[in-house]
Design a protein that fits this description.
The protein is α/β, with parallel strands linked by helices and 433 residues long. It has two domains: 142 residues, Aspartate Aminotransferase, domain 1 (Alpha-Beta Complex); 256 residues, Type I PLP-dependent aspartate aminotransferase-like (Major domain) (Aspartate Aminotransferase, domain 2). Helix content is 39%, strand content 15%. The mean pLDDT is 95. The structure holds 4'-deoxy-4'-aminopyridoxal-5'-phosphate (PMP). The site of 4'-deoxy-4'-aminopyridoxal-5'-phosphate (PMP) has 14 residues, from helix 4. 4'-deoxy-4'-aminopyridoxal-5'-phosphate binds next to helix 4.
Amino acid sequence: MSTTETSSSLAWDRARKVVPRGVSSGHRVGWDQVFVKASGAYIWDDQGNKYLDYINSWGPIVLGHSDRRVNKAVFDAANTCDLTGVGPQVGEMELAEKITTLVPSADKVAFCTSGTDATMHAAHIVRAATGRVKILKFHGSYHGWSDVLAVGSSRSDLTPTSPLDTPNSAGLHPGATSDVVVVEWNDFDGLRAAFAEHGSELAAAFAEGYIHSFGCVPAQPGFLELLRELCTTHGAALVFDEIKTGFRSALGGYQSIAGVMPDLTAFAKAMANGYSIAALAGTDALMGHLGAYSKKEATIDGTYNANPYSIAAANKTIEILESEDVITRLYDLGDRLRAGITEAIAEVGIDACVGGLGSEWTVYFRKELPTNFRQAMESNSEQYTKYHRSLLAQGILEPAFTTGDRRLNASTTYEDIDRTIDANRVALRAAAE
Ligand code: PMP
């Protein structure tokens, strides 16, 4: 859609005058539209155009947009006890109790406001606990923007031979980023070699058990098990970033599917259907290092941590996820969609493939599913652009860049899915031209 002289383009111009690049978060660029309404599976732009939303705020919206039940719980909490800053809160205890019963590796849970907070706290804890400094992570995997982990997932300077451990942006502390060891995902030998070289200095390894940072890329059989074993052998903690998989791939997190237990887990996004909350869960031993200013303990101190609005939203969202068996619905919808897109790809005869799990999927414009970041980035971007534009013109909103993961929410209907499959057929033909 051309936006010249539309109110959307005027709104972008207005925003750019007062907000750097017009948005307060880097991943919000890529669309010309300005969206003004959201309900269920749909969002609307300021021109009145309606779109099936498969961004879902990059993960948080799991039940559906503007869910009345969650919103009511938030307003009730706000009208009852709008307290942060004084002692534990009832909702906070309830939420921690719920998470420790659902998530197999969680003895204790602490709350903060964003995924980046949670992974940063995890880094502080593992350093406090082990007295070591270095952290291992995987190429392409994004764990937030804090200096301690913002390495090795930049797309801008990626070439087939570029180093794995390039800082993600300017402004990071070189000392912090130089203490991060980056390994290619699913590289068994590379992982063994990294532990052989740095094992005794590693405080932890961080991993998305199922990678969504560059689409949908699972660990190959045995890779997570090897990672767990190497961490244990070398006295390093294993931290799972379940910020995208948590409360979406399974109520117990992806770890409950993989059967590999981390020592710490970061959650955020889907746990509160759009309200800003994150959680760091883990073993008693490690979580015991969080909470005070001392030489042995890492601090957690956010003014808005465990605020009653987000806590109420999380308690209500998890209650609905559990009582209405929402995850099963997400898998049914997702499986039907992936099967339909796979058929459409075969019909059109284009070199493309679809990967994913449950409610998440990614279409790659290459013959085979990627197993690591570089392969994912080889997805044909010209074909992707044509595909993306065609879907958008058909009222379907998806990521504007090749390796973006998309996800549906539980308000999506089977009719929506069938329409999406038909739209994919058209978009794949456009990409093939
Ligand atoms: N880890 C992963 C896997 C993520 O996808 C994200 C956000 N996209 C983060 C960490 C950072 O979370 P937040 O934006 O809430 O700080």
